[in-house]
Amino acid sequence: DAGVTQSPTHLIKTRGQQVTLRCSPISGHKSVSWYQQVLGQGPQFIFQYYEKEERGRGNFPDRFSARQFPNYSSELNVNALLLGDSALYLCASSEQWAASNQPQHFGDGTRLSIL
Amino acid sequence: AQRVTQPEKLLSVFKGAPVELKCNYSYSGSPELFWYVQYSRQRLQLLLRHISRESIKGFTADLNKGETSFHLKKPFAQEEDSAMYYCALFTSGTYKYIFGTGTRLKVLA
C-alpha cells in the first residue's frame, strides 16, 4: 500500500485564481482530514470528512471547501487565492473518525505557492 | 480558547541524556492528546496517544489534567530520535484537531 497519496506535489498559482488539491486515502480508510501548514508552524486543521459528510471544520474562510467521493478520495478547493494561502497542504486518513483510537496517516502534502 | 502550546522551538541534548518535550493544552472538555513525529524526509506520523498509555521507541507521555500538560519523555536519547515533534489535541465536542507549533529535537553525538 502506497499510503495516503496527494496530487499534485507542487503547484504555483497567482492571486485570485482557484485551485483543487486531491487526496487518496489508504485503502479501507473512510475518513479524510485536510490541514494547512505554513512554514514554521504546526498543521492547522481545515476539514474532516467521513462517509462523504463534513464532520469537522477549522477556522478557515468560506473560500475553502472540500468534498469526499464514494471511493473515499477527497478534494480540497480554494477560491480567490491570496498570498497568505501559500503553504503545504496535508491530507490525512483514518479508518473511522472522531475517536482517539484512530491514528491519522498523513500524505506528503501539496506545496502551494501563490505569486 | 482551544490551544496547544509547545514552548520550545528547538531542544538540543546529548546522546544518552534524558529528554522532555513540553506540551500544554487549553480545553474545557475531556482532552484526547497525541504526539506526532516527523523524521527528516519522512511523513508526519503518530508516535503515541494518551489513551493507549503506551511506550513507543522508549518515549512515554502522561496526561496531567491538573497542569493541563502532556509532556513527552525519554530517559536516554538516541541520535535517531532527532526529528520534529508535534503535540496535538482532539476536541471531541467540536471534532477538531489542534496541533502545536512543534519542537525540533536534536540529539548530539
Please explain how this structure is put together.
The complex is a heterodimer of chains A (115) and B (109). By secondary structure, chain A is mostly beta strands. Chain A has no helices and 11 strands. In chain A, the strands form 2 sheets. In chain A, strands 2, 4, 5, 6, 9, 10 and 11 form a 7-stranded mixed β-sheet that branches. The relative contact order of chain A is 0.33. The model of chain A has no long low-confidence stretch (mean pLDDT 93). Chain B has 109 residues and is mostly beta strands. In chain B, the strands form 3 sheets. In chain B, strands 2, 5, 6, 9, 10 and 11 form a 6-stranded mixed β-sheet that branches. A 3-stranded antiparallel β-sheet of chain B has the order 3-8-7, with no helix packed on it. A two-stranded antiparallel ribbon of chain B has the order 1-4. In chain B, a hairpin with a 6-residue loop joins strand 5 and strand 6. Chain B is globular.
Topology:
The complex is a heterodimer of chains A (115) and B (109).
Chain A: E1 5-7, E2 10-13, E3 19-24, E4 31-37, E5 44-50, E6 53-57, E7 64-68, E8 74-78, E9 87-94, E10 105-106, E11 110-114
Parallel strand pairs in A: 2-11
Antiparallel strand pairs in A: 1-3, 3-8, 4-5, 4-9, 5-6, 7-8, 9-10, 9-11
Chain B: E1 3-5, E2 10-14, E3 19-21, E4 24-26, E5 31-38, E6 45-49, E7 60-61, E8 72-74, E9 83-91, E10 96-99, E11 103-108
Parallel strand pairs in B: 2-11
Antiparallel strand pairs in B: 1-4, 3-8, 5-6, 5-9, 7-8, 9-10, 9-11
Largest beta-sheet details of chain B: 6 strands, mixed
Helix/strand order of chain A: EEEEEEEEEEE
Number of strands of chain A: 11
**Proportion of beta-strand residues of chain A:** over 45%
Which assembly state applies to the chains in this document?
heterodimer
Spans of chain A of at least 5 consecutive residues whose pLDDT stays below 50 are none
Order of helices and strands of chain B: EEEEEEEEEEE
Which blocks of ≥5 consecutive residues of chain B have pLDDT under 50?
Answer: none
Give me the number of helical elements of chain B. 0
Structural class of chain B: mainly beta
- Radius of gyration of chain A equals 13 Å
Our count of helices of chain A gives: 0
**What share of the residues of chain A lie within helices?**
under 10%
Largest sheet of chain A: 7 strands, mixed
DSSP strand count of chain B: 11
